[in-house]
Design goal:
globular, 428 residues, two-stranded antiparallel ribbon
Length: 428
């Protein structure tokens, strides 16, 4: 992303997105990474005795915390693949929380879910009008959407939740009355069997059982919907002509227009979809996480979603891995506190040592040396303490965000025309 905009580049021969960047990680490589990470976590669990690292409750909580972050990141992916930087995701999520809470308590939570998506789409259309039609700087427009959404929802909450039936039902100027639950899904038999295996604390086997148990126990239907949206987004953007045209608008809109693509139309569609996905993420917070709208409920998840999207290199698979990582670290500090977070220090030592070895092997001596020094410092911290101070525990997900962005920054490739000003007719 960039905070400044320049005019769109002149017409050029379009390049396929997949050919312009290094080959994406194959399924085998992703499975190898996931398997290696699982093995490493299992070793750390055995060494430290922190059995909560891979427990069913930890994984289930991480899944619930990862969904709104993942949806925000997916929203950013749709928008930026069409060339529109969407830093207004936080505001669109705020609109989604209010819409879901407002309609959810009065009627059905399913209608609340749809209303949250609709409010997010409205926020996306405001951003599209400003950036696509009027050529406003994308960062300026996104910040404006965030501020407008925050102010509008605070005003509307005081208007609708501070008097009358809403107060009698439990509302106040900062929150809506509670809504009914959307329902959870548990696989009967399998959930209990996996829980039993997990309780034995066998190396790797119990870790796998705990992870699978968290996936099949008390899973919200919106979580399943989010997984389907990730798969559907990958298929639409990379396997359909619609997706190819949309991505061409983010790579070179002038060349796309010269080939007959209605660039404005695709940008509007992408940003509207982006707003709807962000609104769904907000609705998840209002109807699944807490069953009520709360002021400040998003807690910066729109920005963390952007970080997950960047970590994932503007692709759904990497984005999902990033969202899962942030959700896991957030759940760890919320559920288990300083003792379990302390066990992560050992995991961090191993990762930093591996990074140092790789950098030194690639003859990047300066970066390798810095990584080795940090690894040694963290190891000393781990050996001399029994738990992480509570003041640092709450910062765990944000520290993880900074670390993964700093480690992944060298392999990123954003869409070439992301954030650039485009005026209709340049390709004719």
């Amino acid at each position: 992303m960039t905070a400044t905009m320049t005019d769109a580049p002149p017409p050029a021969a379009p390049k396929a997105d997949d050919a312009a960047q290094p080959k994406s990680r194959s399924l085998a490589r992703i499975l190898l990474i996931v398997g290696g990470a699982l093995l490493l976590v299992a070793v750390v669990r055995v060494i430290t005795g922190a059995n909560q690292l891979t427990s069913e409750g930890q994984v289930n909580a991480a899944l619930g915390l990862a969904v709104p972050i993942g949806l925000a990141g997916l929203a950013g992916l749709w928008s930026e693949r069409a060339g529109v930087v969407n830093i207004g995701l936080e505001g669109m999520m705020i609109l989604g929380t209010f819409g879901a809470g407002w309609i959810g308590w009065q009627s059905s939570p399913w209608l609340g879910l749809l209303c949250g998506i609709g409010f997010g789409v409205l926020g996306g259309l405001v951003h599209a009008v400003a950036t696509v039609t009027f050529g406003v700087d994308h960062i300026v427009s996104g910040v404006a959407v965030n501020l407008l959404a925050l102010g509008a929802t605070q005003y509307l909450a005081k208007l609708f939740f501070a008097e009358g039936p809403a107060v009698e039902a439990g509302g106040n100027p900062k929150q809506s009355p509670p809504a009914e639950s959307l329902g959870d899904i548990t696989v009967p038999g399998l959930s209990d069997a996996l829980h039993s295996v997990e309780q034995h604390h066998w190396f790797l086997i119990s870790d796998i059982a705990g992870i699978l148990g968290g996936i099949v126990t008390d899973v919200s239907v919106v979580t399943i919907l989010a997984v389907l949206l990730f798969v559907g987004s990958w298929w639409v953007l990379w396997r359909t002509s619609f997706g190819l045209r949309l991505r061409s608008c983010g790579e070179n809109p002038v060349a796309a227009e010269s080939l007959g693509v209605n660039v404005y139309q695709y940008k509007y569609a992408a940003v509207a979809i982006s707003g709807g996905l962000a609104g769904l993420g907000g609705a998840f917070l209002a109807l699944v996480t807490s069953h009520t709208y709360l002021e400040g409920q998003t807690g910066g998840r729109g920005y963390i979603g952007l970080a997950a999207m960047i970590f994932g290199n503007w692709r759904p698979g990497g984005l999902a891995m990033g969202a899962a990582l942030f959700g896991y670290s957030d759940a760890l500090q919320l559920r288990n506190g300083g003792v379990t977070v302390h066990a992560l220090l050992l995991l961090l030592v191993v990762l930093l040592a591996a990074l140092a070895g790789w950098k030194l092997y690639r003859k990047a001596f300066w970066q390798g040396g810095i990584s080795a020094v940090i690894a040694a410092a963290v190891l000393v911290w781990y050996l001399l303490t029994d738990e992480v101070p509570s003041d640092f525990v709450g910062a765990t997900p944000y520290v993880v965000t900074l670390l993964v962005l700093s480690l992944s920054a060298q392999r990123l490739r954003m869409p070439k025309a992301d954030g650039m000003r485009y005026r209709k007719g340049q390709g004719k």
